[in-house]
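input
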Amino acid sequence: MTERRPTSDIRVGERLRRDLGNLAPLAASMAALGLLHPIVILADGELVAGARRLAAAVLLGWTDIPVTVVDLDDVLRAEVDENIVRRDLTPSEAVAVHRALADRLATPVCRPANGGNLPPLGRGKTRDKVTAYTGMGGRTLDKAIAVVEAAEADPAQQDLVDRMDSQRKVDSAFNELRLRENRRLVEATTPIEEALAGRRFRTIVIDPPWGEDAGVTGVPYATMTLPEIAALPVRELAVPEGAHLYLWVTNQSQRSGFELLDGWAARHITTVTWCKSDQSGLHPALGQGSTFRGSTEHVLFAVWGSLPLLVHDLGTWFAAPRGPAGHSSKPEAFYEIVRRASPGPRLEMFARGGRSGFTVWGAEASAGPSTGPEDAIAGDGRAGLAVDCAVAYRASRLDQPGLANVLVPR
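output
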């Protein structure tokens, strides 16, 4: 329910006793417009969400304040009782209720205070209870938690919480958070010329961070312009006598991809298409699109000099679900193809994690788990490790012949 409570009656727990940042702008807004959204408290007056709004109200000399009272017993019942009134909470308030409920469920006996018959519940149930109570999806709640935690760790991120709450939408703030984090990683990345000085590779895989001038928009990572991508020393990193290049392109950036090949003096041989599937591998995964829904990406395969493929039984398409690192993550099935077809040493540029059989470079190159002792992360002190080893790999499920067991030669 919503009511007014004296500000002096509201208890602020240790969890919310933190640096609240500059309250002057918020106080000025509240003085001009009033409190647009009540703070959230429990029935006993403990603050759940709205510490900054409460502090600003005190700063303004308000003696009482609108509150939304949340009953955790109702949250516990929300999954099984359709008569429970769902609360219209902002995303950050839903996060606060999630925390309050987690504390409640951490007690030895998690029964309603009124002596009801609900059984004890484990902590793993917390998200389900909160999503049922608020109507927010589980994945959305996870994103909201990430935004709130980022703002708590760095008050400069508070604007993302404010945006999330004012828009009542989480994705925009979450994607901006990912973009900021990626930019921070990019700034800390060793330049490729320094990280790979003196190295040459027989195989290079590059998945550029295409930008708006290549027709790619709305991505949650720092992008590069076409001139910036073209200036990368890709040709200089290839063995002059012969090397393979795998250049990832989207449907929108194919023309730009061919322009890059020309600039790097690489000769296009063929195009390999990734047909995206769901996790079962049985059905196509449809992406975004105002005309045809995108369900493919492509690899422009090019060469320098003369270097035949190691095998000759691979087709020009493969079906696989998206890789484990989320947006733009490429499937392991693709790397199995590269290991079979192209010799080492191999380099992956703009990698999303460690990769067996590859030296990896990029802002997120160390973000994922290593997948074998052959990994080398350029620029972190391990770049001198040998990465071209004879290692047996078991391929992912593919509609291609001959990929059950693969031995990658030197």
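quick obs: Residues 192-407 form a domain with the Rossmann fold fold (CATH 3.40.50).
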